[in-house]
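sorry to bug you again but im stuck and you know this stuff better than me. what follows is a protein written twice so to speak, once as letters and once as structure tokens for the fold. mainly i need to know what kind of three dimensional shape the backbone takes. anything you notice is useful, everything is just below:
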Amino acid sequence: MQSIDRSATLSSALRQAENLRNLALRSLNPQRDARQLAGWLYNGDDVSALAGLHALASVADPLADRVLLELLLEGDPCRATHAAWAFSARRSCPEAIGPLSRMVSRGGFPAMLAERTLLEWASRKSQPKVARASDRAKRRPSGIVVIQPFLHAHIDREGSGLGAGDAGGIASLLRSLGTALAALPEIDEVITVTRKQASEPRSQVLGPGHRVERMEIGPPGPLPCSHAWPHRLAIQKGFEALGAALADRRVVWHLRMADVGTLAAAAAAQRLGQPVVFTAAPDPHLVLDALLEAGRLSRWRFGSEDAVHHYWFRSRMVERLIAQSDQLVLLPRPNLQQDLVKLVGVDATDLAKRSTTLAEGVDVGQIERAQLRLATQGRAPAVERILQSLPVARRELPWLLLVGRLTSTKGAHRLVEAVVANSCLHSRANIVLVGGDLEQPSADEEATVERIRRAAAGAPDGLVTLTGHLPPATVSDLLVHAAAHHGVYVCASDKEEFGLAIVEAMAAGMMVVAPLRGGPGHYIQHGQTGILCDTLSVPALARAIQQAWPMASDPGRAERARAMVRRDLSVAGMARGLSQVYTRAVAE
């Protein structure tokens, strides 16, 4: 426990907590160790207490049941949630069934964990036979069927819902990637799975060999990621039905997110004996360390933050997905393999054996079509609408453009703060923010818009324009217009795992400002094709924009950025690399 107390970072504390739990599993004196761990629950910070709780649940002593039951009943939401989760590692405790059932009825993330524990206890009594790949005969020697789930995407042929709610860059990627994969001879079909909303059809063809299947999950209307956890069981049953219907074909699941859809899909694939590919990253481990370093999180108030964001559970989920997946895909970013070994605890030899480093890609053709429209038809209607909404004196100013979901982690409010505080910037540029549902915003979108409005207080009229979410072709029109008028693309996110919108901006020829944290450092040449900065710092962001501004008109810069994207970061190239990963996964 002392090593947990002394851990300099939260990620290292999580690793020490897992080591402590493994030691508790092998305890030679369970009675003594259970008493000691129970005492630690109230004699340290929140991180140490949760580490002690999970270690206690691994000790074969009746005291653990009594303490976990007390935590369920005492009312602290964080400890009760972790107790419900930790109980799943133990034999069925009859006294806990009532409190766990009441937790299920109250809903939310704790309900998912309580239900999971109750189902785990019930399954140990019946022990149903799990279908494995080796149990099935007459597998058709056809191409591969790829299932790529993201329940919170709103994906259609036109991309009309991209950028609204939780449907950001990953939704845009799946839409274009699925069609690019299906064009390859070794891929039979790609099935993108989302959640059905309103009058959407259950199934829709997005392109040759690529269809979207929409599951009817939860209440009508939007269902944010954070509210979807209680529907885990229904989601898993839907995935099992889909996978079972494809049982005579060569199926591979590609999972990417630390959300309930990934949790359910991984369980369904394991139950059906179908291989899994996981895009692995040390999240939320890196996020935790960054929040601690920035002073936005501390070990003493970790419990209240964890009750909202589920950091501990999502960390363990990522660790187990990495351990259980047949193949891993790594995004090319500095020190990623070292971070997975150090922060997540992955074995370096195993990681090298099972992983493939592969860049994500964008639809370069879509940008090129927008450039052709600008050259032959002039300004696009969407560009014209933005310009006409501005005061006449500001219509010729270049843009600081940001495209992404309306959520605080994307940092739009920091971009506005940086520009408003700098007279040199706000007199020379307009800010254009693309994304979010402005007509029926989610609670997160409403809160983000309010932060942007507060940041813009006292700003010149017309400085900030919010467009709401736009289809991909329209976004491309905005990018090429901004590039033609020496605009700068500013990604002010806390961090970006890769940053597809940044790549699209570079494909359009824009100068970019992007986070130091995450993937942009792999493809941005600092000081040449873009500026990397600490986007959590408003002053640093302002300095980066000022540094980028004169470089937007450097001769040859735009051409170099476009050439790099076409060569290294096209969606077609990404599809070819993934097809090799899928082939290895199904062969194993």
Summary: The CA atoms of residues 172 and 572 lie 14 Å apart. The two ends are 40 Å apart (CA to CA).
